[in-house]
Amino acid sequence: MTAIRMVRKIKGKEKVKEFEDKYKNLQNLQMILESEQGNMLHQLDLENWEHYLENPDEYLEEGKTIFVEGINLGELELDLMHNIKNKQPNSVSELARMVNREAGAISNKVNSLAKNGLISFKHGSKNRKIPILEYDKLEIGF
Fold first, then answer.
1. Does domain 70-140 sit in CATH 1.10.1740.10?
2. I need a surface site. Which of 3, 38, 106, 133 has the fewest CB within 10 A?
């Protein structure tokens, strides 16, 4: 099993948007906290949400650690992640063209990266899967 720490630097206003996507509004989060379902992580989210509402241009560095097993992170996989992050392809087919490979082979690699939490997809037009890499730095086996 390999530990991978993924780190990103984002502005406060982007973090506020993530809170809105997760909770819809501050009142919903406050209701969760008042109910028996609230916990310390919700309290931290509330404090951070309020802070970044007041400081939308402040940057924060945020990280998460994932543990993967049975994934090969070779040159091709790292090249795919680099292209996803820096060139932002609009589809897996476009990504395959960027790395001069067959779309089917790249699709398998990209799906494996997504399955292991290294990338994600957003849906585009015509059921197109758009690969996304939200993190700026990967630390493998730290």
1. no
2. 3
